Amino acid sequence: MNYKLVIAMFQVKLKSVYNDLTKSEKKIANFIMKNFEKTKTMTSYDISKKVNVGQATVIRFSKKLGYSSFNELINSINKLDQEDILEKNISLGDDIATTNTKIANQYIDVIKLTLELNPVYVFEEVIEAIIAAERIVVLGIGNSAIVSTDFVNKLARVGMNAFTNLDTHLQFSMISNLGKNDLLILISDSGETREIIEAAKLAKQNKTRIISITKFTKNKLHAYSDFILKTASFDINLRLDATTSRITQFTIIDMIFINILKTDFSKYKEIITNSDNAVKLLKY
After folding, report:
1. What are the distances in angstroms from CA 268 to CA 50, 133, 156, 258, 277?
2. DSSP 241
3. Closest Cα partner for 84 from 33, 15, 13, 16?
4. 188: pLDDT confidence band, cut at 50, 70 and 90?
5. pLDDT per residue over 223-261, tens digit each?
6. 106: in domain
7. Which CATH number is 219's domain given?
8. Are 134 and 161 in contact (CB under 8 A)?
9. Which parts of the sequence belong to the SIS domain (predicted)?
10. 84 lies in the same domain as 174
11. In whole angstroms, what is the distance from residue 212 CA to residue 231 CA?
12. Is residue 103 part of a domain?
């Protein structure tokens, strides 16, 4: 893995899980972000004493970031450059050009991490499940509803029986009629949204397989999913009302869709052409 990607992965992982950390774990995160050089030579015991938390909390913090151990986290930190971290932070004093560049760079980072988090074999299994499904329902709540609508439009355009609706009650009616040959795709950044979890429970009762597109850190939705495509998102510095959640979600659905097209390009090209010709009949 190259140097810049290691930096990006650590930063994005930390920002992605920050709001889910306990008070003690946030103390560890804040200490690391402010003391990279010191941290490089510290043990989990050293950090626990420095921030006044238990050593087990430091190890648990490491695993929340997706590392298998504290030593793996330290190895990543040893490859970080303090100057690089500071350069990516957005400040109120930045001009428009600088702010735009920093936002774009953070989007690039989160897309690279999305690719890193999801092995090819998971995409292969997901694509196979989508192609084989008799009916597909896609559900996203709030910001994720935009992504679910876009995904259904793509799937329907190539002739798949895919459905979504902004009316949650209607969505649940559709989900209740799914069976073992159908598929439910749930899109949720947090993986904790009540409607999403209830939809997953309902689908499980009918033995409907579930694909989830959700945050890589452990959440409730993971437990109900047959296939998990992992996202990484965080609020842009200063909380300027911009998030990366939709960027990583759109990246995943585009990866799925393009690879579906490639499984039988001639077939899907013909379907798309027929669809386009039908739409042209409505133009005056």
Report:
1. 59, 16, 11, 11, 14
2. S
3. 33
4. very high
5. 999 999 999 766 555 443 346 788 899 999 999 999 999
6. no
7. 3.40.50.10490
8. yes
9. 126-266
10. no
11. 10
12. no
- Mean pLDDT value across residues 80-86: 49
Q: How many domains does the chain have?
A: 2
For residues 237 and 99, what is the distance between their CA atoms, to the nearest angstrom? 10
For 9-44, how does the pLDDT look when each residue is reduced to its tens digit (9 = 90+)? 666 677 767 778 899 999 998 888 777 778 888 889
Asked whether residue 151 is domain-assigned, the answer is: yes
Q: If residue 207 lies in a helix (H) or strand (E), which one and from where to where?
A: none
- Looking at residue 3, what is its pLDDT? 43
Let me know if residue 133 belongs to a domain: yes
Closest listed residue to residue 112, CA positions, set 227, 11, 219, 262 = 11
Cα 126 to Cα 268: distance, rounded to the nearest angstrom = 18
Q: Which two tokens stand for residue 202?
A: 């309902």
Percent of all residues in the chain with a pLDDT value above 90, rounded to a whole number: 52
Helix (H) or strand (E) holding 189: none
Please provide residue 178's backbone torsions phi and psi, each rounded to the nearest 5 degrees: -75, 155
Same domain, 124 and 177: yes
CA separation for the pair 234, 244 (Å, rounded)? 6
Among 49, 73, 88, residue at a domain's last position? 88
Expressed as residue numbers, the domain containing 129 is 118-280
Q: What CATH number should be reported for the domain holding residue 9?
A: 1.10.10.10
Residue 238: the pLDDT is 46
Residue 210 pairs with which residues in a beta bridge? Answer: 184
Backbone angles phi, psi at 229, to 5 degrees: -105, 120
